[in-house]
Amino acid sequence: MIGKKNILIGFMMVCLFVSPIAIAPASATDWPMFQLNTNHTGYLDEASDFNPDTWIFQTAGKLTSPAISDKLIYFGSTSGLFSALNLDDGTKVWDFKAEGNITAAPVVVGDNVYFSSGDSYLYALNKKTGDDVWKYKTGNSIETTPAIDNGIIYFGSDDQRLYALNTNDSTMKWEFQTANAIRSSPTVFNDTVYFGSDDGKIYAVGINNGTKAWEYDTGSAVRSSPAINNTTLFMGTDNGNFYAMNTGDGSVLWTYNLNDSVKSSALLDSNDNSLFVGSDNGNVTALDMRDGKLKWSVNTGNVESAPALMGDNIVVTSTSGTVYVLNKFSGKEVWSFMPGYYLFNSPMSSPVIYGDDILAGDANGNMYSMDFSRKSGPVTPYVYYIAAIVIVIIGALVAFRVLRKRRKGEE
Q: Is the Cβ–Cβ distance between 123 and 110 less than 8 Å?
């Protein structure tokens, strides 16, 4: 008969082996690809000790979509500055100056944050200190968000190549040549990396040796990032066609024409069999993932960003400078925030979500943290600009009336 002491010892040993897997997954603080995962949800649960607040951080240039890890937010700018901020209050932790513009969102895995630059380098920095770990030079500008899988980082360059490097020392594993610039951020799924190219093709390349599995010619530049659910890939092109394709052989399952360029990457919601995508036709469109049938379409202004998922809502930004929270079932507006107040609007990056907080940057160097639970955003400097304009206008009207009265008195 087994004694109670032996049972207790056995139970403790089981807990010892199981607990690292159950409570500390390696990916818990990682942001390994564009908009976090293959569904492009762009959503993380907030930490229990997080105290949300609205804030604005001001820098220079057009900002990229951010990435989040360990309550820090990372993003780049066309000014070449890469920044890390505290997520709770927007205070700067560190920044790093690249020699070229930064136009694509970063990724964070393990101890490092990775981003690309127009100076032709891919950078790896220590995520806590901003210290340079390594950098890798390609033959031209890099405008894609990398994807990391099992210690290998994949990214495309304007030199027409997709690269696979070891994340620990930047040594090349392989490279794959296309016929034009690669500005589509890759997605890794089932030992295959998927991406588009300005040569009009969607590619599937094996991650082991860079051998092409298949390609599909769309006839137009492909700049969005592939979203994948189960074995189906979803992707739009510059000619307005949106594709659902089999990841195994590249066969087309269905298409939908959005009537204008699709630079927005799709958000997938497998629970509702819905996908959400924006286009230059001014609409955010919801389609059925299974057959491409239209669910709803709402005008928001041109959308080149990827929507993010937040419970029963999606969050999307437009080139008109507005952040929209839309009900994912109907497209009805739940809340919106326009930091530029019509007069100072600028295009905004793809939003990311941390609990009830919405984070997005604009083209004027402002990173915003908005609190959806309170439906509030930070007070922006544009409020004071508008107030100054109103005061000047009122002053001019008063001066005009005074001058007019004087002239009448003189007559």
A: no
